[in-house]
Design goal:
The chain has one domain. The chain contains 4 helices and 14 strands. The chain has helices spanning about 45, 50-55, 195-215, 235; strands at about 25-30, 35, 65-70, 75-80, 85-90, 100-110, 115-120, 125-135, 135-140, 155, 160-165, 170-175, 180-185, 190. The strands form 4 sheets. The chain has a 4-stranded antiparallel beta sheet, with no helix packed on it. The two termini are about 40 Å apart.
């Protein structure tokens, strides 16, 4: 809690934290008087980087928590499973009448996959379920660090997600594989589970053709010789559901 005039720290927000201990992100549904939070780790678990022994031991966060927003009290724990490690970024629906949102999970200890989960409210209770899974990419064990050699794969490592202002597209970035996905959400909340492997094949084949074309023209493949282009923000930015553009 911060003083609204001086920003001095007044104390912790929660009055009753229940079994919540680890923490990372939080969002709220004002119309439902509810706040939800996610988990990563304590400062000494992350300040020097992720610790392999803690990760493989399932010691990082794998739960979400539901709070009474007005009374600042813990109501419910939503456990995604101890193999789901580092429940991080939360993105709620922008429509204030809707009680759902998405949260990203960095890695599964089962197969190194990453995932996105949906939280939602049904019959007065909050629940969470996996709606998107991004599998790990096979790789030569000789080129992998010791912790990954037995898996023979590179984890996607979902590190950020975002939901478009009209709640129709979910964007997912993968730190481990350098990928970015745009996924359409159908039926208000259920994302379409695209064939991510097909996206990868398209990305790889396109990158290969671009590299070959650049080499044929005698230009570096990293784009270093390309002229910088002006961003066309005036043609792209609009405010949804207002009936007029923000920028002409």
């Amino acid at each position: 809690m911060l003083d609204c005039e001086t920003f001095d720290v007044l104390g912790q927000w929660e009055v009753d934290r229940g079994d919540q201990f680890l923490h990372y992100d939080f969002w709220w549904h004002l119309g439902f008087d509810t706040l939800l939070s996610s988990e990563w780790g304590t400062p000494n678990m992350i300040e020097n980087g992720v610790q392999p022994d803690l990760l493989l031991g399932g010691k990082y966060g794998h739960q979400m928590h539901v709070w009474d927003l007005r009374r600042r009290r813990h109501l419910q724990t939503l456990d995604l499973g101890s193999e789901q490690q580092m429940v991080l970024e939360m993105r709620p629906a922008h429509d204030p009448r809707k009680a759902y949102g998405f949260v990203g999970v960095v890695v599964s200890l089962k197969d190194l996959s990453a995932s996105v989960w949906l939280w939602h409210r049904a019959n007065g209770e909050w629940d969470v379920k996996k709606v998107i899974e991004i599998p790990a990419e096979p790789a030569d064990p000789e080129k992998l660090p010791a912790m990954l050699k037995d898996f023979k794969a590179v984890p996607p490592l979902v590190t950020d997600i975002n939901l478009s202002l009209d709640d129709k597209f979910l964007y997912v970035s993968c730190f481990g594989t350098g990928e970015f996905f745009a996924i359409r959400c159908f039926g208000s909340i259920q994302p379409k589970k695209d064939r991510l492997s097909a996206h990868r094949r398209h990305r790889q084949s396109r990158a290969a053709s671009q590299e070959a074309g650049s080499a044929a023209r005698g230009r570096p493949t990293n784009g270093g010789s390309e002229s910088r282009r002006q961003a066309n923000l005036f043609h792209q930015l609009a405010l949804c559901r207002v009936g007029r553009t923000v920028l002409s």
